[in-house]
Amino acid sequence: MKKQDLAGYLDLHAEEIFAASRYLYDNPELSKEEENSSSMFKRLLKKNGFTIHEFGQDELKYAFYAEYGNGHPVVAMLGEYDALPGLSQEGGYSEMKPVENGGAGHGCGHNLIGACAFGGALSAKKYLEESGHSGTVRFYGCPQEEMLDGKVLMAKYHAFDGCDMAFAYHPWNANIPVSQGFLAMNNMKFHFTGITAHAGQAPEQGRSALDAVELSNMGVNVMREHVISSARIHYVITNGGEAPNIVPKEAASWYYVRAPHRKDVVDITRRVINCQKGGALMTDTFLDYEIAGGCYELLPNDVLCALARKNFEEMEMCPYTEEENALARALSESLPPEQVQTEREHIGFYDADSFIHSGIVAKEAASRYPITGSSDIGDVSWLMPFSTIFTAAWPVGVNAHTWQSASASGCTLGQKGMLYAAKIMTGMFYDVINDSEILETAAAEHRKRTEGNPYDCPM
Ligand SMILES: [Zn+2]
Ligand SMILES: [Zn+2]
């Protein structure tokens, strides 16, 4: 069985893979609520001859892996399935059209991520069966990516033990073998307690928890000048008191700190906490806080990135119908033209009549491509050699967490982009099984990059 036969195998099973993505799209579940989504994949994989493993912990009730094969290499394909609040959208529409007003929807296309790993695992199994080679494939069901802690918790409970390498996918507006990016992050909650009092009659008896929040925020805001410029610090006040005539006894804020490297996040976190301590000290209030979560940046692996690029080149994108091209155009044109133009420049794609990226973002452009969100895939990349890929499942210029990305994720536009990704993942699996040197060199690179700086689970 040759590599291209596996691409053909995926074409043959496209309907089954698309149906899985469609089921998730039609039944969106938010982070921590993915009961039906995880059950569907368990059912499908079991039916296809995989063995299901669960982890037992309550925090991981919607996480699992499904395994097929024997011996090494053990390759993990990471599936996700959580949706986003408020992004309900009729799939395949060129206008904003919620299925349910204010309802959840797949604006990040995680329905396609789950389906891609499912397709990848199916074809990997097919190859192991046909070739008789040693090797194991694992589909990982990874919940709550949008909370940025699903895989962090999985790492905490050693869910990835036994894997030699991992492949991941995210739908995007371009074809990119991702070489760098995703900011490391910490998520912190601060709670202040003061003393309530009548704000007019006896303010001197009160100690305002809201004052503490405000002064702490002020401290952080002047600190911004003295952190690396690539860091991002954002907060909201989650409790600011009840009424102006009551000195607030309780007040609270919620912070995210992000930076390209985890070590910077850890240091800025320490300084943000100092600002909060200062706020409490200045106002004679009491501070309580928790680091509610955090994740790592993506640790690059040049060996696997090059392998991904080779497979982008070897596999072919699915052809698009006139209808799909027209939808892509309409979705792209619903955006401000400058936004689309900027994105065209980022990916080096200037064909003004094409609204679905074709070709592959060049190596140089990919190494500069801005990925300034965070993802819990970063943590997996610190555990083992790791590769993630983006494919053009959304039209040019369309960003994640929008009704446009939701619309594309719920129709053949997104599904075809996802199938291309599943073929690339399968091709990478084929190469790893047939050439043991890939794992050896990727693992050596991983060891070198983490030497003296091993993974330290943020949770
Ligand atoms: Zn997202
Ligand atoms: Zn996402």
From TrEMBL:
Family matches, as SUPFAM superfamilies: Bacterial exopeptidase dimerisation domain, Zn-dependent exopeptidases
Superkingdom classification of source:
Bacteria
Which InterPro entries does UniProt cross-reference here? Amidohydrolase, Aminobenzoyl-glu_utiliz_pB, Bact_exopeptidase_dim_dom, Peptidase_M20, Peptidase_M20/M20A_hydrolases, Peptidase_M20_dimer
**Positions of the Peptidase M20 dimerisation domain:** 187-272
Q: What biological processes does GO assign it?
A: folic acid catabolic process
Checking Pfam families in the record gives: M20_dimer, Peptidase_M20
Q: Which terms in the GO cellular component ontology are assigned?
A: cytoplasm
Molecular function GO labels: dipeptidase activity; para-aminobenzoyl-glutamate hydrolase activity
- PANTHER family from the UniProt entry: PEPTIDASE M20, XAA-ARG DIPEPTIDASE
Task: Give the matching NCBIfam families.
Answer: amidohydrolases (TIGR01891)
Q: What is this protein called?
A: Aminobenzoyl-glutamate utilization protein B
Q: Which organism is it from?
A: Anaerobium acetethylicum
Classification from the root reads: Bacteria, Bacillati, Bacillota, Clostridia, Lachnospirales
